[in-house]
Amino acid sequence: MSSPIADAARPERAGPLASAVRKIKWRVLPLFVVMFIVNYIDRVNIGFVRQHLSADLGIGAAAYGLGAGLFFVSYAIFEVPSNILLQRFGAKLWLARIMLTWGLAAAGMAFVRGETSFYAMRLLLGAAEAGFFPGVIYYFTQWLPSNERGKAMAIFLSGSALASVLSGPISGGLMLIEGAGLRGWQWMFLIEGMFSVLLAGFIWLWLDSKPRDAAWLTRAEQDAVLDEVEEEQRQRAAAHPVKPSLGALLRDPQILIFCLIYFAVSLTIYGATFWLPSIIRKMGDFNDLQVGLFNSIPWLISIVAMYLFAMLAARFKFQQAWVAVVLLIAALGMYAAGQGSALFSFVAICFAAIGFKAASALFWPIPQGYLDARISAAVLALINSIGNLGGFVAPAAFGLLEQKTGSIEGGLTGLAVMSVVAAGVVFFSRMSPREGLPASAH
Known about the structure:
Blueprint: H1 4-9, H2 11-44, H3 50-57, H4 61-89, H5 91-108, H6 115-129, H7 132-143, H8 146-174, H9 184-206, H10 219-239, H11 246-250, H12 253-281, H13 288-315, H14 319-337, H15 342-363, H16 365-370, H17 373-387, H18 390-405, H19 409-428
């Protein structure tokens, strides 16, 4: 990161750099937030159609859980290769390609006819979407100075919370549409998928791969951004002449710990995401829109919690302790969710959401501070993809449990145990931020 002394030595850059950062944020961040919202909705909207898939196609609880989770298998397999291809072909082309193909796959969900086609489309959707999240992180490293990336990431991650709130009412409302020989759940998949396709065209017209391609920046602003990013990299390279290899990082036990923690967080998030609409339906005779509105309540609460805990973590410095605290909150809520009526379970999940959504937001600054920037994009993609396999394990296990026992109480208890384990790991592990690996690791 640039030092104050270095900044003072080049005052001619400060004005254009500040102007460029403002323009970049206003032009790029709103688009990325919208992409994240659409991405999340296309990923989790099957949670609202489980009952319809069962009634219309005969897809039972176990098959539904497996199909919901298969998304994350292909997602994990293609995440790192996709991020490498983004660096080769440029963000404009590759992010537009990701959005186009995932939109087509999401729309194709409207035409599944049974378990096999359901599994196939979920695998295709995961493969199409892979690379989006780490691709955005990489984009920030090429366009923003280091002291601005954290703020940009916080705004970008807010898209996940907004999507959690919006997904229920949007999906539930679209499912009320009937006609042209299609059921409401088919219209939902078609409309939400085709919106992603249209957004891909906008990305192609709006986004630029490199600052030098941005006609909306002046030449002085382009130079200031490029000089700042290159200067940061020169300073990092001078401090650590040997670039850490990906292989060395994969042998670093700390990376495995990051993967374990994020796996536990993802387990809880997706366990709640894919089964919450079913719990809500047991509370009363609600239509699809009403289920969607109820589904928004835990996520609205979680937004407030995310920002509250972010403020506390910024004021009282010990990021690991705050991650451990919110994981314990998630554990308590998920355990309680398996102990009472559907209404009690819903209230308990509202409480758990305070913890698991805050944990997701508070977690990422820890590996970002630990990793060398020259290799961080690939490793963050790895952590994200392996961690997101929790999105496969949770719904698949829940589906099997419900089909075999008629209850998901055991699954909820398992999620609570995993959150407690993750809380202990994150609290007691050494995760001090550092610029790179020690010399012996190279």
